[in-house]
Amino acid sequence: MNISELKDICSQVRRDIVRMVHAVNSGHPGGSLGCTEFFVALYFKIMKHDKRFDMNGKSEDLFFLSNGHISPVFYSVLARTGYFPIKELNTFRLINSRLQGHPATKEGLPGIRIASGSLGQALSVAIGAATSKKINQDEKLVFCLCGDGELQEGQIWEAIMYAGAKEIDNLILTIDVNKQQICGSTDEILNLGNLNQKMLAFNWDVIEVLNGNDIQTIIRGIEEAKSKTKEKKPICILMHTEMGYGVDFMMGSHKWHGVAPNDEQLKIALSQLEETMGDY
Question: Which phi and psi angles does 86 have, rounded to 5°?
């Protein structure tokens, strides 16, 4: 797909996000909107993945979402790439739905490999999957996404230390650096310091993507990360995004971390997002 087509997909995914969260007056639009380009780049351009979903994931790239509260963007992209019917997005967060507020495996939703949203855990799982691929001489890669606020969890740093020490070099971790979390900015709540220097100190290779809301820029960043794999170091992409990107009144504010738009706000949001693939 060319850049124009990918931008069109991003616009539609953002429409899905705000409509899903509005419909049940529950969910996390801010981070979902901010990570849209990343998910679209990964699933429509970068990863070698099979929509005939198999939990073993042999001979395909794998993705693990750690900050599971941004499930709306994950569900939209999975549906739009054909993992399950697009109309199923109508069931987001409903009782007995496969589209729970935080992704879960019990419901058997294609594309979901682990339950996530209990923050700090998925990088450990991703390391396990990457190690399994190395043992089985599977050349495909493992991708993981974490939020920056999530780095305040201790388990993340245990996993970062382990991956660097054990040279897990078929792993690409992306950190969404939007500098916002549910109660305020990360600087205010618990300052993360210089993430670039910290990752380097743990024997990771680091790529900084200064505009993660530009589809071309994030594609270049992930492709660069892929080119650095198999060199005795795991790769970290520090992806700078803006929470709520694409909807002007949500942008840059932690207040939209976990708040649904009301009817009038939904109307304004949709007026700013072009319908390009047809609403569900």
Answer: -60, -35
Per-residue pLDDT tens for 156-177?
999 999 999 999 999 999 999 9
**Triad 197, 203, 205: Cα angle to 5°:** 70
Q: What integer is the mean pLDDT of 181-210?
A: 97
Amino acid found at 67: N
In this structure, what token pair is assigned to residue 228? 């650095």
Q: Which amino acid is at 76?
A: S
